[in-house]
Amino acid sequence: MQATNEPEGVRQAVMAVPKVVIRQLVLLVPLLANLALLAGWAGVGLTDTFVMAGLGVVAVATLLALVGGRAAPLWLLTATLMLDLVGIGLMRLTPDGNGFGPLAVLPAMWLAADHRLRGVGLAFLGTATFVVAPTLVYYGPEPAWWSRGLVLSILAVLCAFIVAGTGQVWVRQNSELEEQGTRLARALDDVLANRALNDAIVGTVDVGLVALDRDGTYQSINPRQAAFMALAFPAGHAGRAGQLGDVFAADRVTRLTTEEMPTSRALLGEEFDDHRIWIGAEPSKQLALSVSARSVRDGSGERDGAVLVYKDITPLMAALKVKDDFVASVSHELRTPLTSIMGFLDLVLDDEEGVDPGVRRKLEVAKRNSERLLDLVSDLLLTAQVDDGYVALDVEPTDLSTIVRESLAHNAPRAEAQGLGLRHSVQPGLVVHGDPVRLRQIVDNLLTNAVKYTPSGGSVAVELEGGDEDLWLKVSDTGIGIAPEDLGRLFMRFFRSQEAEDRAIQGIGLGLAITRSIVEAHGGTILVESEPDRGSTFIVRLPLDGPRSPGTSGGHHWAADAG
Ligand code: ADP
After folding, report:
1. What residues flank ligand 1, with Cβ below 6 Å?
2. pLDDT tier at 5, thresholds 50, 70, 90
3. Would you kindly state where each structural domain of the chain is located, as residue ranges?
4. Any idea which fold 208-312 has?
5. Which of these, 203, 387, 402, 458, has the minimum number of CB atoms within 10 Å of its CB?
């Protein structure tokens, strides 16, 4: 504890004296001073009857004050003040004692302090009765004494009124202050309770949390994040956004650059979800994290930092890998016997005379279904490969015009059977560097979809045209169209629109996902415009010189899956 300094000590000592006693002392000082003045000047002695009587009454009041002390009840306080007025009134009767009169202001003010507005009335009554009236009785109702009495009464009432008013304001302010204090204390309690709750949540959640300030300094991290950082930054972390460490891209080997680090992106105001990274140098101990970021804004809407959430998705990634491996190996295993079944069916069907027409029809149905099964298995296999991060391409100069024409011819019977008009405008001789099998898949998928999703009476149009560097394939239909909210999910694996499901149109939702992967592996882009019940247009842009990376011609091209 700090030692009490001197003024503080004096203050405490004064505070220790009861209020009622202090009042008496304050009154006694001018009273005795005036008395001393009169004694020295006018020769008024202590033996004067009025002085003795007056002093006696004030002494009784002081005695009462001392007895009552701090616990003095209100009536006792009032009684001492009234006695003081009586004492002043008596002393005022001594020769030249008019100077005692104004001292009545002091008890008048204290009465107002104790009783507020009621105290103003008491002050008036006390002053008039005990200070003013005695002189009028004693000296007779002379104008000089009336005038003094009037001024004195007004002065006492005025001072009492000021004190009562100030007291009222003070009490109101005090109660407002008290109320504000209570409200503040309650708010502080709430804040503390909230903070404790937040701390408990942040400390318990199973995700890593980072709060960055507007300069990119780490403001806080939770224990989970501390564990992630120990793995990602074995040499330590300086607590600033963008620090490099054992943080890798989706391929698990390419280290992220400063700009690619989630914290750097978040610091620039980017908001994202499910950005996947791997942390840890040793492959067997690497963790996959899904990172989300949101900007934090201050009261005026200014960006004030960011919050990042890191979720451990290693088990999910492992499960996905198992699933893809399973799909890949099952489809691979199914392909061999299926190809063999189809081969033998072809052999049997090739025998023109040896097969009975009834049996032939059944065998043809079996062959069609085997072909469909093989298509499905191939799609599944390709999807599994795409998920592994590549599409294998055998790139060679390929005549896309011919491919489009073949696909048109292949789909024409079905379009005709459905009563669809099939229009086309194909620029001849467009040669592109690409994988002919995969390019055919693009055209087939788009064209079969256009036919599939267009009710009879509609039409399908295919356009192919080339520029200096790129070519454009446009497949449009007047079919069922795609709802705007579905457009974003159209190219996701296994996505099927409600409309397609409701109309029981066959499909498993892999065609467009595969189409996009192939287009992007060739360095191209695909986009779609559609309106429900009006139709859809898919536009594919492919660069004529094929994928822009080593090993484009011949051999395999491994393209990262952009989807
Ligand atoms: P599938 O046709 O086997 O369902 P896709 O991947 O080719 O799978 O297509 C995914 C979904 O996109 C379809 O189920 C359908 O809802 C919608 N879709 C694709 N092409 C069209 C089209 N031309 N018109 C309307 N909807 C389409």
Report:
1. 445, 449-450, 453, 477, 479-482, 490, 495-497, 500, 507-513, 536
2. low
3. 2-179, 208-312, 318-387, 390-560
4. Beta-Lactamase (3.30.450)
5. 203
Distance (Å, rounded) from C-alpha 497 to C-alpha 487? Answer: 10
List b or e across 61-93, with b for residues whose CB sees 16 or more CB atoms inside 10 angstroms. bbebbeebeeebeeebbbbbbbbbbbbbbbbbb
| Closest of 512, 412, 415 to residue 458, by C-alpha | 415
3-state secondary structure 245-314: CCEECCCCCCECCCCCCHHHHHHCCCCEEEEEEEECCCHHHCEEEEEEEEEEECCCCCEEEEEEEEEECH
Alpha-carbon Rg for the chain in angstroms: 50
Using the atom order of ligand 1, give the atom closest to the CA of residue 510. 6
Taking only the tens place, the pLDDT of each residue in 225-250 is 999 999 999 999 999 999 999 999 98
The CA 507 to ligand 1 mean position distance, Å, reads 8
Tell me, in angstroms, the distance from the centre of ligand 1 to residue 377's CA: 18
Q: pLDDT at residue 274 above 60?
A: yes
Residue nearest to atom 10 of ligand 1 (CA): 509
Mutate to test the pocket of ligand 1, among 496, 516, 517, 540 (most ligand atoms within 8 A of CB): 496
Nearest CA owner, ligand 1 atom 2: 507
Closest ligand 1 atom, residue 450 Cα: 23
Torsion of CA 113, 119, 122, 127, to 10 degrees: 40
pLDDT, mean of residues 397-425: 95
The fourth-level CATH superfamily of domain 390-560 is Histidine kinase-like ATPase, C-terminal domain (3.30.565.10)
With bands split at pLDDT 50, 70 and 90, how would you rate the model's confidence at 323?
A: confident
Tokens coding 515? 């189409």
Instruction: Write out the two tokens for 302.
Output: 């200014």
CB atoms within 10 A of CB 250: 15
